[in-house]
Amino acid sequence: MSDRQSQTEVILIGAGIMSATLGTLLKELVPDWKITVFEKLASAGEESSNEWNNAGTGHAALCELNYTVEKPDGTVDISKAVSINEQFQVSRQFWSYLVNGSLIRNPQEFIMPLPHMSMVQGEKNVSFLKKRFEALSGNPLFQGMEYSDDPGKLKEWIPLIMQGRNLNEPIAATKIDSGTDVNFGALTRILFDHLSQQGVGINYKHSVDNMRRTADGSWELKVRNLNGGSVERHTAQFVFIGGGGGSLHLLQKSGIPEGKGIGGFPVSGLFMVCTNPEIVQQHHAKVYGKAKVGAPPMSVPHLDTRFIDNKKSLLFGPFAGFSPKFLKTGSMFDLIGTVKPGNVMTMLAAGAKNVPLTKYLIEQVMLSKEKRMEELREFIPNARSEDWDLVVAGQRVQVIKDTAAGGKGTLQFGTEVVSAADGSIAALLGASPGASTAVSVMLEVLKKCFPQQMPAWEPKLKEMIPSYGVSLAKNPKLNEEIHAATAQALGLSRELQPV
Ligand SMILES: Cc1cc2nc3c(=O)[nH]c(=O)nc-3n(C[C@H](O)[C@H](O)[C@H](O)COP(=O)(O)OP(=O)(O)OC[C@H]3O[C@@H](n4cnc5c(N)ncnc54)[C@H](O)[C@@H]3O)c2cc1C
């Protein structure tokens, strides 16, 4: 028997960065709508959005080599990089609006300026990096990027990486100072604090176990109060499933036809964290390398300066791995529990297609610390085991579905908004590029689910995101103005003093 019932306009499931962003957007657009949040853990931002569970890269395709692909004719396709950069500019604008409106007081609690670099070794890789640099530097979004294959210059940029390095192969790097380190955990907590002050009902330790559509087209959620175990019923006209790795399971519970035929493939992660403050001080950048052959794109190795708990840290990874859990705090039965009659053929096809990937991930799980140190030494040749510890990162659940291009059971590496035809429910699946693009992804949810309201919301959307509906890549002057304004608002234009 339920001992609590409520009716509300919007229910957000999960207190990660996606629900935080959607809730904040909605509160600005329609302040009087009643919003309720259910989160099964004890506080906000504890799963993938937590600062220790992700890499904190403000993904703007400044350094991630997997977003620029070399075509068979040898030219480099930058279209994906441009699109990801545009999405990050949307996030920067929304965060700046929140800072300018004093909804966020100190942006340095969640975002810091940090050079983004790509580094490669070997003739073929150096030639690719140079072509990539040339293709990007013609685009306004990538202004300020520098390239060097001079070991002397690289010693200035990345002394820790160059120290003790064997230079019998060519080496090159690009560097752009407008990169960022983002503490998505801190941002999630800031946004939920703000939502709570705005009267949003945030219910921690409440797990959404099931849902059904009611006769009037609303959604009734069965929610378990984990403080005591009582079962509650809550109804809303619109539900956002922002459960991270838990979203697929809930989407299946909704029974909407749009969710049929979709499966999930979990990829776990590990970082190495430096425990020696002297080493930490010798590095100041996010340096991305090239993924190993057979590795999934999200496990491109990178050596990252991070700003966590008001301290400068140094992390290396992520090492990918396989675990059947869909959330870090999930269950070993998560994967098998999402295999349903509607997606079993898709899952089987994906299983058959991705044997090499599964093998790679299992091998990664089995790596000893010394083997991981060998991978780290490709970045820091003099790295000592005693200076590094392992930390377990978050889980990512990649979408598996049938596509025209990839055929049955294709593994997707992006994010995907799945919504009901009537817009009454939407779920976010997938995790790349992830939190950095949360604002664009949540705008997509609004477009899909509130098409009637969008024209009336447009002026406010333009106030919050001045480039709304406009391509910055095609408007260099607007891009320059917006970039300068957001850098100023977010405190990114000043020289960073090493902590
Ligand atoms: C190793 C790794 C590195 C990454 N690096 C980056 C990066 O550098 N830059 C970047 O932009 N992105 C990165 N990402 C991706 C990014 O972290 C995610 O895209 C983002 O945090 C997802 O946010 P979310 O709100 O969807 O999910 P989450 O933060 O996981 O939140 C979902 C919440 O829903 C709750 N929940 C689940 N099921 C239920 C239920 N039934 N009832 C109630 N609550 C429920 C969970 O407890 C959780 O709190 C990385 C991810 C990983 C794993």
Task: Describe what you observe in this structure.
By secondary structure, this protein is an alpha+beta fold. It has a domain at 263-415. It contains 15 helices and 22 strands. The strands form four sheets. Strands 6, 7, 8, 14, 15, 16, 17, 18, 19 and 20 form a ten-stranded mixed β-sheet that branches. The longest helix has 22 residues, at 79-100. The relative contact order is 0.18. Mean pLDDT is 93; it is low at 495-499. Bound molecules: flavin-adenine dinucleotide. Flavin-adenine dinucleotide (FAD) is lined by residues 13-19, 38-41, 46-49, 53-57, 59, 184, 207-208, 242-244, 246, 250, 269, 318, 327, 393-396, 428, 431, 433-436.
Features:
499 residues, alpha+beta, ten-stranded mixed sheet, eight-stranded mixed sheet, 15 helices, globular, binds flavin-adenine dinucleotide
Topology overview:
Layout: E1 2-13, H1 17-29, E2 35-38, E3 69-70, E4 76-77, H2 79-100, E5 111-113, E6 116-121, H3 123-137, E7 146-148, H4 151-157, H5 159-162, E8 171-176, E9 180-182, H6 184-197, E10 201-203, E11 206-213, E12 219-225, E13 231-241, H7 247-254, E14 263-274, H8 277-280, E15 286-288, E16 302-308, E17 311-321, H9 334-337, H10 344-353, H11 355-366, H12 369-377, E18 388-392, E19 396-403, E20 407-411, E21 416-419, E22 425-429, H13 438-449, H14 454-464, H15 476-489
Parallel strand pairs: 1-2, 1-13, 2-10, 6-15, 13-22
Antiparallel strand pairs: 3-4, 5-9, 6-8, 7-8, 11-12, 12-13, 14-17, 14-18, 14-19, 15-16, 16-17, 19-20, 21-22
Helix pairs in contact: 1-6, 1-13, 2-15
The structure holds flavin-adenine dinucleotide.
Flavin-adenine dinucleotide binds next to helix 1 and strand 11.
